[in-house]
Amino acid sequence: MDYRRTYRSAAIAFADLVSRIPAARLDAPGLGEWTLRDLLGHTVSSALRQVPTVLADRAPTLLVPGPEFYFALVRSASDEMVAAARKASTDDARATGAALGDQPATAVSGYIGQATAALAGAGDDDVVATPAGGMRVRDWLPTRTFELVVHGRDVATAAGVPIDLDPDTLAETAALAARVAVALGDGETVLGALTGRATLPAGYSMI
């Protein structure tokens, strides 16, 4: 599966979704304590805006050998670190959402252009500095596709507007979710649920 193509596909689907959100819905509930505008801001910041910055920042050492370990490392953080990260994420989501203005689709398209241009100049095995440590581009970018797909679906649900994700992009994201579950030690539980032999614990999440 071509991780570059699935990232672009997810980005295009997200841009199309944003272009169809009624302006009156932007300040409606989004996800948890976030408004829909905040949710858009978080998605743009995490999956689009940071891509050129990360791709331009080379790391001296490979520390995270695969995309599943990126998310698994986040789960291993202390309660204090998680609380601080959540506050910073919320502050950034609100600031970015506000900066998107009343026509967020225009801003989103601009960020996509910048991200895909930066990606075109990056090598698959370039090691870049991510919040979790040094990662190969081919391992880090799928974590951004994951953000676009998961939060794109959150946005679609909150806005009451469907999102059109292609099968390869969904497959890559679902497979990564399963790989994260395995990295966390939950592989047998998730496999049992997917094959109808067990059920997931109430409220289970691999993120």
From TrEMBL:
Top-rank taxon: Bacteria
Ranges for domain Mycothiol-dependent maleylpyruvate isomerase metal-binding come to: 8-156
What's the name of the protein? Mycothiol-dependent maleylpyruvate isomerase metal-binding domain-containing protein
Q: Which InterPro entries match?
A: DinB/YfiT-like, MDMPI_metal-binding
